[in-house]
């Protein structure tokens, strides 16, 4: 975590790839054809797959140079650099002395011919914009800026105002909201139906084919519209506690009987009602409900502000929890309940995939219970 009263400054590299020349011997490998003519590019372009990797070597070299020039700490994402500085001395009245300012960064760049885009420079402050989000160091928050909330609301509203769309239009909305889930992680489960809508376009050779909206997608996008109206749409930056090794929790489900759970050697089990399967209720849903019941069991045991490890033998459930959503509507609904409960009680979850033979909850999930001591 940053020390109190730390500040950050953002620098962008100008025309990143275009500043790296291509050796003449390699230019024939990046030839472009336009109107029947072949053109040789002299610099890296933004469409070349290897461009980010080549640029990465240059950026990594700059990292070492800056760190050896008096810069205390910074991070980079492609062409975005964010520099941090920490207070060395306090003069009172919120006045502090820092070890360096923007001129050190600029002087190193000038000596090397490094092209900062000064029009996008953000001076040292307690808050800043970076990768599309507003960060506040002192409040330890990151959120979607107001301008982007308005922009994205308009984009979704315009999308919903037309009853059918091409794949590219729907994909653009999904990509926009996928970025927002970096600060609204619970939103991943409200992208399940938009993802399904996009995947419903099977023939990429006909990009102008339109599909009609589905009700689940409309419902999910309306949820997003409500979120974008919130005054604060983001999250508080906290370090999760270490995994609490005092909890050993196994969960399992079986189609033949129900759901089983073993927590620190003690078991719980829930039997399915007759004719329980159907309408999306299958073994994958049951395994997700097992996770949900495990979380509720922890809450009833007054667990909060904890990082818990749950052991499961279902790969689909482990993958869905990592992704934050499931394409199965019933499974996704259970996942939303899991996320909501975790957020309410400050519970972090680590779900580990184990072999079925090692899952101690297998027996109670099939109605076979350990013998009670006499």
From TrEMBL:
It comes from the Eukaryota. InterPro entries: DNA/RNA_pol_sf, Hepadnavirus_pol/RT. PANTHER family: REVERSE TRANSCRIPTASE DOMAIN-CONTAINING PROTEIN, RIBONUCLEASE H. This is Uncharacterized protein. The lineage of its organism: Eukaryota, Fungi, Dikarya, Basidiomycota, Agaricomycotina.
